[in-house]
Design brief:
This protein is an alpha+beta fold and 435 residues long. The chain is 14% helix and 32% strand. Strands 6, 7, 8, 9 and 10 form a five-stranded antiparallel sheet that branches. It has a five-stranded mixed sheet with strand order 22-23-26-24-25. Strands 1-21-20-19 form a four-stranded antiparallel sheet, covered by helices on one side.
Length: 435
């Protein structure tokens, strides 16, 4: 990572005065920076969330005298505002979101217009998780989420709402838990806005130890979470795993985020900015053994995936720029999940009509050549139907490759999962001039 990029990130977060007179080389060595004591002098804290413009920071203070319920109050939501000089204001209690019980903000929408919160009052008659909306008068009372068959055998919990508002991740202890807190996923029902029963993310993610503080990146497949069951540097470390198909059961092997982020202490409560390059988290460092809130530069290899940009020479179509959106399918299936459909439609609706679309369908190496060619064609047809049903007027080309491009190369299970897909290739219509 270049010094200039690191300097920009840190100065934009903390303000130029804090780095006045510091050379770029010195700043580049400070890719993990602890926030000032105006925020960090009261601990323990969890779940720091920075607004997308970097001007407000929400976080949870535990058993603090300033909480509405005093020292016996396990969690209150607090807010600090970035000052013109780059400093941070004295944190204030977000009173409209808090009670004398446990109240935590777990996710914040990009526009800061609503938040996923846990509220102790809601917990008396439901799962406790709800949505609160930002109004001109502050935050509205949270509206409870209806999660079918929700229960938690532990007094500890975490939640995370996906960027498209269709996926809920939980850290819970349930009857099928492998050990301590495990990570679960729940899907929103489009007809009644209820949520499906929490489903375990499986043995690749969950271990006999605790997994918690999940964060699903906007790409919908890069999962960051804290665990002590996958090895590490000591205490809880933060790991990255990428979802490999639409079943939410197949994941890449979790990767430790490394010594630039994790420590011998506990590292958790990971959230990420919209650009995917800066982390807000709870951690320690050599000078501060007491946990606090840090800003950290995320190495490129550990960032969420983005649409692949392909040069015009790599695919034989008349275009200047191509964006490829892969739609993944389960083994032997040609149905599109609601999340994949929503993500694709959202992307396409931001485009003008001066584009063409090519759909390339693929299958893995399980089955005969002819059946896989037919399966890939059915997957293409499902995507075409989605576009036509939603009245998106693009010129569409399609081609089924089945498993033909594999050249009889044996695949691993992970490779098979990524091979079951349709690539939605969006290109500028070469007959129309670029604007």
């Amino acid at each position: 990572m270049k010094c200039s990029l690191i300097l920009f990130i840190l100065v934009s977060v903390f303000g130029s005065n804090q780095f006045k007179g510091i050379a770029d080389d010195a700043v580049s060595a400070q890719c993990k920076v602890r926030l000032p004591e105006s925020i960090n002098r009261i601990t323990p804290v969890i779940m720091p969330i920075l607004t997308q413009d970097g001007t407000r920071l929400y976080f949870d203070r535990k058993n603090y005298a300033g909480n509405l319920g005093g020292l016996q109050d396990p969690d209150d939501i607090w807010e600090s505002i970035r000052q013109p000089n780059g400093g941070w204001s004295e944190p204030e209690n977000v009173r409209e979101l808090n009670s004398a019980g446990s109240d935590v903000m777990f996710s914040l929408s990009r526009n800061e217009d609503f938040a996923l919160v846990y509220n102790s009052i809601l917990a008396k008659s439901g799962c406790g998780f709800g949505i609160s909306y930002k109004t001109s008068d502050g935050w509205s009372p949270p509206k409870a989420l209806s999660v079918r068959n929700y229960y938690n055998n532990s007094g500890f919990f975490f939640g995370n709402l996906s960027a498209d508002n269709r996926i809920l991740l939980f850290a819970l202890e349930r009857d099928d838990t492998r050990g301590g807190l495990d990570l679960y996923v729940s899907f929103r029902n489009e007809t009644d806005s209820s949520w499906s029963p929490p489903m375990s993310l499986g043995a690749t993610i969950n271990t006999s130890q605790d997994e918690y503080s999940p964060f699903l990146a906007p790409d919908g497949k890069s999962l960051y979470f804290s665990s002590r069951g996958h090895g590490g540097l000591g205490g809880f470390d933060i790991f990255l795993s990428r979802r490999l198909d639409e079943t939410w059961q197949y994941w890449s092997k979790p990767v430790n985020l490394g010594t630039s982020i994790n420590t011998v202490g506990n590292d958790h409560s990971f959230t990420l900015n919209a650009a995917g390059d800066t982390v807000v988290m709870i951690s320690t460092d050599a000078e501060h053994p007491r946990e606090g809130i840090f800003f950290v530069c995320l190495p490129t290899a550990l960032r969420p995936d983005k649409p692949t940009v392909i040069s015009r020479n790599e695919i034989p179509h008349k275009s200047d720029t191509l964006l490829v959106f892969p739609i993944y399918f389960s083994l032997g299936k040609s149905s599109i999940t609601a999340q994949s459909a929503d993500s694709l439609l959202t992307a396409l609706r931001t485009l003008d009509t001066d584009v063409d679309i090519t759909l390339n369908g693929y299958a893995c190496d399980i089955g005969t050549d002819s059946s896989n060619l037919s399966l890939a064609s059915h997957r293409i047809a499902a995507v075409e139907k989605l576009l036509v049903t939603n009245k998106l007027s693009f010129k569409i080309y399609s081609k089924s490759y089945g498993e033909n491009l594999l050249h009889n190369t044996p695949l691993t299970n992970d490779e098979r999962n990524t091979q079951r897909r349709v690539d939605v290739i969006i290109m500028h219509n070469a007959k129309k001039p670029l604007r």
